[in-house]
Amino acid sequence: MQSTDLIKPIDAPTPTKPGPTPHVSAADYSSMYAASLNDPDAFWAEQGQRVDWMKPFTKVKNTSFEPDNIDIRWFEDGTLNVSANCIDRHLADRADQTAIIWEPDDPRTEDARHITYAQLHRSVSKMANVLRDLGVEKGDRVIIYLPMIPEAAYAMLACTRIGAIHSIVFAGFSPDALGARINGCDAKIVITADHAPRGGRETPLKSNTDTALLHCKDDVKCLVVKRTGGQTTWTDRDYDCNALMAEASADCPAVEMAAEDPLFILYTSGSTGQPKGVVHTTGGYLVYAAMTHEIVFDYHDGDIFWCTADVGWVTGHSYIVYGPLANGGTTIMFEGVPTYPDAGRFWDVCAKHKVNQFYTAPTAIRALMGAGNDWVEKHDLSDLRVLGSVGEPINPEAWNWYNEVVGKGKCPIVDTFWQTETGGHMLTPLPCTKLKPGAAQQPFFGVQPVVLEPTSGQIIDGNDVEGVLCIADSWPGQMRTVWGDHERFEKTYFSDYKGYYFSGDGCRRDADGDYWITGRVDDVINVSGHRMGTAEVESALVAHPKVAESAVVGYPHDVKGQGIYAYVTLMNGQEPSDELRKELEKWVRTEIGPIAKPDLIQWAPGLPKTRSGKIMRRILRKIAEDDFGALGDTSTLADPSVVDDLIENRMNRG
Ligand code: WTA
Question: Is the ipTM of this complex over 0.85?
Answer without folding.
Answer: yes
